Every structure is written in C-alpha cells, then in structure tokens.
Amino acid sequence: MSEVGHTVEGMNHGEQLPLWDDAADEPAGVPPRRALDETRPAEASVAQPSARAAHWTDAVGVFDLETTGVDVTSDRIVTAHVGLLGPDGSARSARSWLSDPGVEIPEGATAVHGITTEHARRHGRPAAEVVAEVVGALRELFAAGVPVVAYNAPYDFSLLKYEALRHGVAPILDPTPVIDPLVLDKAHDRYRKGKRTLEVVAAHYAVPLVGAHDAAADAIAAGRVAQALARRFGLAAPVHELHTQQIGWARTQAESLTEYFIRVGRLDPTDAVDGSWPIR
Length: 280
Description:
By secondary structure, the protein is an alpha/beta fold. 37% of the residues lie in helices and 12% in strands. It has eight helices and seven strands, in the order ββββααβαβαβαααα. Strands 1, 2, 3, 4, 5, 6 and 7 form a seven-stranded mixed β-sheet that branches. Helix 5 (181-188) crosses helix 8 (239-263). The relative contact order is 0.20.
C-alpha cells in the first residue's frame, strides 16, 4: 500500500560528520547520528505527564524519514511519518507515506528500514507527491503553533528541504518550533555513558520502541521521549524559548564533537562539525 495510517487533515544515510556519528568508541556526552512498509500502532503506552510537565507537551507533532542514504543533499525519501500526540503520548492523528524515490535503494539502506527498490516501485507513490504532502503536513502543524519533534532534527529537515527543491516544492527553510530529543538529552544528561541512538535513549527513558527504523514507530517514540524529557528535567519554558535554547546547545555539542574527532584523528584540525540546528 502506498500510503498508510490514519488521515490527518493537511497533514537515514558515505560518512558525513556533520550528521553526528554513533560509533561505539565515542566518549560519554558525544552526540550520535540516528540512524515501512506500514504504520504500526504503538503496543504500549507511556505514563501520564505530571501536572508540572511543560504545556508544550500537551500536543506535539512528530516527524521522521527513512531514506536511501545519509547524504541530505542527494539521498531520497523512502518512507515518512507525520503525526500528532496528546499529553499522554497517544497518537491523536497520523499519516504515513511510502515513496518511489526514483532511484535504486541501496542494500545497506534496505537492511535498515526493510524497503526494497522493487517494493517501492510497485507500491510507492510518486516522490514529488509525497514530498509535497509531507511539507504540507508539517506546515499545518507549525502554522497552528504545534512543536514538531524530530530526533536529530537537522537530518530530517535538511533532507526534506533538498527533496522539496528537487521536486519543485516550496521548502520549509526555517522550521519552528522544533523539539529535538537528541539535543535535549545531551544538554541535560551530558555525562551519561553510552550511545545516544533513538533506541538507546528511548530505553533509558522507559519509552517503548517497537519496530525501530519504521518511520511511524521512530516518530512516535521520539515524541514520547521528548515528553519524558520534559517531565524528567522540568522543561517548562515556552516552546519558542526552548527552540532558541536548542540552537545554542546544538552548537556547543558540535564544538565538543569536533574537538573529540580531531583528538582521535577522525577529523582534520582545519575542519569542524556543522552545529547548525534545526536545519542545514
């Protein structure tokens, strides 16, 4: 089926250092890169937010892409999900897409998300239509003032931007407000050891993630992780203020990662990790 999930009105990847790596040998506090057939309903719910939870958690948009690779400028969307979660993390509306990207899907990408070139060609919709609808769904959320959660936001929003330009769709150049659980987790629990992939971070905050690397499953889990972070760390600032704070935190995290990569010889001393957020 080419488009799955519940209807909402208007509603990952060559080494690319700026997208952050999740190599096992990275030290604690170094942010990673994050690495459908159909939308699958969540098989477990998350706890109700406390009365002290930030107001923005009452309604959060969620967004995720699965793609042909890691280069945001040239790789293509294979599956996408845009949805809306209520204060308890339940899905209030959801829409998922399967796209025919118009190019071969590498075996490495298929191994991650399970979509083959043949399947995408047979069941996917034209990429231009999918891109236009995903952009439209996100624009409606932003226009309503709903924050959109995306794990490692610069990856998904940047790739969507280049896909939009490729297909003649007006791109979202300044997505706001955005909530990035990767940035928030690194900022508020900086020295915790281990990887910071979505699977690992979701487990740390006791958020179920069934079917990782399914766009719908990942998007919903990321939204619930954002709500869990708000409860754990009392993130009660207005959402636009939190958006601005994340810009600074992401820049600082990129600077730290740059220092680490230079120290271990993975980056030339004259280079730097791009800390632009939430889009590059």
